[in-house]
Amino acid sequence: MTLKVIFDSNFFFVPLQVKVDIFSEMMNLLSQKYEPIILSTSLEELRKIAQKGTPKLRKQAALALKLAEKCRVFDIKKNRDETNDDVVRRIAVQWRSPVATNDRELRRRLREQNLPVIFLRGENRLELEGAL
Prior knowledge:
The structure is a single chain. Helices cover 46% and strands 20% of the residues. It is an alpha/beta fold. Helix 3 (40-52) runs antiparallel to helix 4. The chain has helices at 14-17, 22-30, 40-52, 55-68, 84-95, 104-112; strands at residues 3-7, 34-39, 72-74, 99-100, 117-121, 125-129. The longest helix is centred in the middle third of the chain and has 14 residues, at 55-68. Strand 4 (99-100), helix 6 and strand 5 form a beta-alpha-beta unit.
């Protein structure tokens, strides 16, 4: 069975900040076949940044959207009182899936749920926190 890994929107900015191919690094880290997933709510968040952010942020978001095309999109409904991080956490809990994120607060919340988290460690490598 292929492991589903949920990519948080901020994770697509990693290759723009440091020269890391998140997809091949993910393969090396997990040493198994995985499917990169982006939730429709995260995709929408990237689109908003690409339209309304600062000029630098708009350019980065446009590149992040290009990277997001390598992911399978899952259409998810966001509840009225949920943030995008809440949605990522809710789906990760439902699927028992690891999440790729560099958001410290989201990482903490996922760890409280005993969910594995993948994040950038230092300047050039991904790290897995928790068991798959």
